């Protein structure tokens, strides 16, 4: 063994390294003749074409290594060489590719020594007289890994592992992905994990490996492409080795006969791997790729949800079959993601294929299942499971995982019996899915992922254990989650210096309450459009870019603030509706108004801070025009709650009874999706279609409101309900008053002092004329008893008269 390499290791490792793999593997003339008919591995797209018997024959000769070619002594160490430039050429023959070595001239480097290319890629050398000086022979996989072309110059220098890692490092465990080099030569032969690991170590012992490395591997006449996914580097001085597996290319370590190699199926899933009998043997069909990290998905704000998904749906599939058999459990077959639109359900579906070491997922939009032909809809369901059933019959528990993703699940799999089409197709489709997921012939190699905005519409049988038993709600992101989403959405800007330094992502996250991930993405696009618009000179008949400003293009804080005015959250504050109710502002004409606002603020604090009051419902009652709706809107707007909604008769006018019930129910359900919510129900007697003639009202709507007013939100959600009515006695007869926690009386304007305050606040008339009005009304109508709305209307009418004071007196007296 080369002393240049031995200096990097202690005696313990040396004793466990097979010198045969360090020595010169250069084939002699006879060996080269045996391999001259093999296709060249220098082209990464070429494959072996010779019969298996020839490969096996060569394999019997120690995998293209002639015993006669092995030197009988260890070569002396040569003086260390500085980095210099070599030109890339093809490997002389296939033996170099199969041994995962590079060909060098004897005048450039010692035989069987480590070299470092471009300060990143480590290879083992082998002498070749066919390689001229200042040239290095690389096979196709090696050139692909390093990104080199033929005749390209590379920087090469000797590599010392101890100097590089500052420790005596060897591989404890290495995760590799294995695929047939030629899909056309894929076979269904079972390859046992432990046998593959032993042969891999025998072939490449004493070589240095790094994550992301590509190489060719021959086993029993079959040629495979192998990619190193991650490795555990162990220092021989460690008493307790660290279990961390690195996936970074900078990690480098040596393979010894004590190392273990865990094989996983490649993307094609064609290699039929079987786990060993040991409980420590990894599961070759593990659904999660060994190098997977959740942050690589590019989905922010869903840490808790991903943790639950992983624990419930995927964790059991990582363990070896022997462990699962001892536990006596079966894998989860169904996962349901539900929540508001734009929170990332479909994004998870698109990204989920990147985290899975399984067959390519089948993604189906719900309505695609349905067909106009009789029986075709049910057949479409059966076809989705056909591949999984065939493989499970052939391979049993060793079969790969088959994933089926349903988007818009509620559009097809509705509650049975709820459709009115009379065909029964919808019911049959539900029955077919139930039978396939958890029927008589059970499959253990499927995972069905469904996504919906309306979990309540899905047939209840689909939500039972054995079907979609894992149900994860994808919430609106909290502030920390919004920071993560902003980091993802602005990553390119930051990397390319396009984000101005005055942009604070934490500030933006605080300003974007109740924004979904999709809405944050839209906000970033809007901010970018404001920044881009600064560089465009829009002239008459032409639009030109300003080259000077283009080079200084930056997305600034001001651009994001402008975008906040343009992009509003779907589950935010309905400011337009609420501000319409308080267009003229709140006029504090008496202590009663101040008291009502103070009481409202107190209930807001109670909902926000109390651990026992997740739900508080208030009833504001008074005569028509007393200002109940305006006061409710003011309390809601001043609360600072991220979600504020109003149910108004204007929103449901003309709807059928069923449509009104659905609208009210959906609005209440939306009010459970934010941590803090306020719901304003305006004119509740109108919502229930009450009219004094008859009297008549909708009992169905009334019962829905009774239930909704008492229904507590989920554990981590809080809701304040502000309801207004002008028919308090009617509500008493309807027996709905018991649904409210408290009642607030909103009085009319009662006396002349309050009327005078209103005129002052609205700047109506001067002091002398106001005195005249008050004195005149004191004689004709000392008790006003009018609603604030009526008085404000009279003021605006009088403003446009030639004699506003007398006109106002007449309007008040006659009201």
TrEMBL record:
Q: Which residues form the CDC48 N-terminal subdomain domain?
A: 85-162
Subcellular location(s) per record: Cytoplasm
Instruction: Alphabetically list the UniProt keywords.
Output: ATP-binding, Cytoplasm, ER-Golgi transport, Hydrolase, Nucleotide-binding, Protein transport, Repeat, Transport
> For the region Disordered, what residue ranges are annotated?
53-76
Query: Locations of Basic and acidic residues compositional bias?
Result: 65-76
Q: One Pfam family, short name please? A: AAA_lid_3
A GO cellular component annotation in the UniProt record? Golgi stack
- InterPro entries named in the record: AAA+_ATPase (IPR003593), AAA_lid_3 (IPR041569), Asp_de-COase-like_dom_sf (IPR009010), ATPase_AAA_core (IPR003959), ATPase_AAA_CS (IPR003960), Cdc48_dom2 (IPR004201), CDC48_domain_2-like_sf (IPR029067), CDC4_N-term_subdom (IPR003338)
Which superkingdom heads the taxonomic lineage of this protein's source?
A: Eukaryota
Compositionally biased tracts (Polar residues): 54-64
Single Gene Ontology BP term? Golgi to plasma membrane protein transport
Specify the AAA+ ATPase domain's residue ranges.
Answer: 331-478, 614-750
Its main localization is: cytoplasm
What GO MF terms are annotated?
ATP binding; ATP hydrolysis activity
> Family assignment?
Belongs to the AAA ATPase family.
Please give the function described in this protein's UniProt entry.
Answer: Required for vesicle-mediated transport. Catalyzes the fusion of transport vesicles within the Golgi cisternae. Is also required for transport from the endoplasmic reticulum to the Golgi stack. Seems to function as a fusion protein required for the delivery of cargo proteins to all compartments of the Golgi stack independent of vesicle origin.
The entry's protein name is Vesicular-fusion protein SEC18
The source organism is Candida glabrata
